[in-house]
Every structure is written in structure tokens, then in C-alpha cells.
Amino acid sequence: MNDDRVTRVEQACIDLVAAGQEITVEAVATRAGIGRATIYRHAELNAVVHEHRQRGHEAVTLTDLTVQIDQLRHALEAVAAKVRRHEELLRKPSRSSTKRTG
User: Fold this and answer.
1) In 24, 51, 76, 81, which residue has its Cα 20 to 30 A from 98's Cα atom?
2) Residue 42 near residue 5 (C-beta atoms within 8 A)
3) 2-55 pLDDT tens trace
4) Contact 25, 49 (CB under 8 A)
5) Are 52 and 23 in contact (CB under 8 A)?
6) Secondary structure (H, E, C), the chain
7) Which region, left, alpha or beta, applies to residue 33 given φ > 0 means left and ψ of -120 to 50 means alpha?
8) Domain spans of the chain?
9) What is the dihedral of CA 97, 100, 101, 102, to 10 degrees?
10) Cα distances (Å, whole numbers) of residue 33 to 49, 56, 76
11) How many CB atoms are closer than 10 A to CB 90?
């Protein structure tokens, strides 16, 4: 395998990620200046594209998880605040019970 082609495909994938573009064989081939068939024909080139595509999906998944964790943290803080308010209300004697005892 021509190491130059592997390097060009690798760099094309890095450039696509940096530009926020989807990693497809067509986009990589265009950016690397080689034919799509060349990438499909050579397992090593295809593997580079596939690996970068997987990394992109994992990054999105990790970002989504971070957002979900943040949302859950805010929701949990809101529930905790309600519980604290309810606990305070339970600790205070109600007005009706003070009138009966007084």
C-alpha cells in the first residue's frame, strides 16, 4: 500500500472532522484527491475512513451523554430543593394546630 495515500486519507478525515463535516468515502476521496473506488478497493484505506467515522459517532455520543448528565443534575437539584421546602413545612407547626393548642 502506498503510504502517501494512507497519509492523505488520514489527513482528509482529520480535516473533515475539524470542518464539522460528515466523514463519507466520497468526501474523504474528494479531499484526499483519490478515487472512491481506490478507497473501497484497499482495505487499509477503507479501515482508516471507518475508524474516523466511528470516532465521530463516539464523540457525538459522549457529547450527548454529557448534556443528558447535566440535564439530570439540574432536575435532581430541583427535586432536592422541593424536598427541602417540604421538610421545612413539616417541621413548622401549622397555624391551625397552634390555634387549637393555644
Assistant:
1) 81
2) yes
3) 789 999 999 999 999 888 899 999 999 999 999 999 999 999 999 999 999 988
4) yes
5) yes
6) CCHHHHHHHHHHHHHHHHCCCCCCHHHHHHHHCCCHHHHHHCHHHHHHHHHHHHHHHHHHHHHHHHHHHHHHHHHHHHHHHHHHHHHHHHHCCCHHHHHHHC
7) left
8) 3-101
9) 110
10) 14, 22, 51
11) 9
Q: Average of pLDDT values for 62-80?
A: 87
Query: What is the structure's pLDDT at 97?
Result: 59
Give the integer Cα–Cα distance in Å for 29 and 34: 5
19 vs 36: CA distance, rounded Å: 20
d(CA 99, CA 102): 5
The whole-number average pLDDT for the span 71-96 is 89
